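Protein DltD (Enterococcus cecorum), 419 aa
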Amino acid sequence: MSKKILSHFAPLLVALIILGLIFCWPSKKTIEKPKVWQQASTSMASNVFGGMAIKNPAIASGEYVPFFGSSELSRLSPFHPSVLAEKYHRSYRPFLLGAPGTQSLSQFAISNSLSKELTNKKAVFIISPQWFTKKGMEDLEFNAYFSELELYHWLLSIDQVRDSDRYYARRLLGFSRIKDNAKMSAILSEIANGSNQLSRKQRHYLEYNYQLLQKEDHLFTQIGMLSKEKKINYFAKKLPSEYNYQTLDSLAEKIGQKHTNNNRFEIDNVFYKSRLEFGLKELKNSQRKWNYCQSPEYADFQLVLNQFAQSHTQVLFIIPPVNQKWSDYTGLSQEMLQRFAKKIKYQLQSQGFTDIADFSKDANVRFFMADTIHLGWRGWLRADEAIAPFLAQPYQPTNYHLNNAQFFSKKWQNQENIE
């Protein structure tokens, strides 16, 4: 009988112990352990980039530079930014922020949580064309990477509500994770509908919960954090001891050939075998009507630019291509992709974001891509030719001039062509 009683109440006891730990845990908010930072920097774990206990002090240290992106950051090879920085003893180490499925809304939340650490600093941001779909970020992806801690951080950072805050509040209210929280929905609805600031009662509620979330973050942020450190060291050993672009480019071409020899698209063998081969016939001409020039993602991306402008962050934006051998097969228009690149560059350059590495015209360069949409061996090496000098040069004071009236508008989201 006693065993049955114990088994019945065991989950409750565990829950009470965890709850007690959260309430009683010291209020220290960060983890100051360089070894943990190193492991976390390549993990791409959602509890790391959605938390603040590890990534914030790591980036504040000056040893790590935030690399914002999505699934391309998870594709390791000898030419990945983390490998090149390790092998050639760069003055920086990338801190990878994102995962497959993260888009501008996720990156805004992450960058806002780093607002202090990014002030007068540098960052690298990879813009994926495939984010810019008709619907923009889907509910499933938003919910998967939603960070309550980062939401509370943003709300508590508001002194006077700006147009960017109202836009973000309206966007958040469209996702089920927010709709299911009546209290949070009420706060966001007030912001979206014109309230200029939080009430004292709302701020007290947010501060109390924010402190609990910080303790929870400190306790659990390392759970499930799988470092790619061993893989990075493995790939680094495959590179020559001295950096020479021509030598490395020849090596990248050789490795690319070896890893893409089971298909005609120059797509990584494993990716092709596991993800494409079985349904290949159905994919022919399946993307003819896809259009990345009309999307709410453009306005979501404007949120990110607002945050970088507020923090005076100097950012290198990278625009990758789409594998042309693959797009020719699926019918995805390279002409449309050029219009996408022109539109996103206009949004950047017209507001003073001029550090841009546009590789959208390299779609047909052999082994530039690892698969259909992700930078590969020669692609990452070309990107490094922009990244390394950008990060080697001293920070330059920014001169951003935001035009939110234009770039948050429905007209801009749906504008097809840029004159």
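The mean pLDDT is 93. The first strand starts at residue 64 and ends at 68. ok done for today
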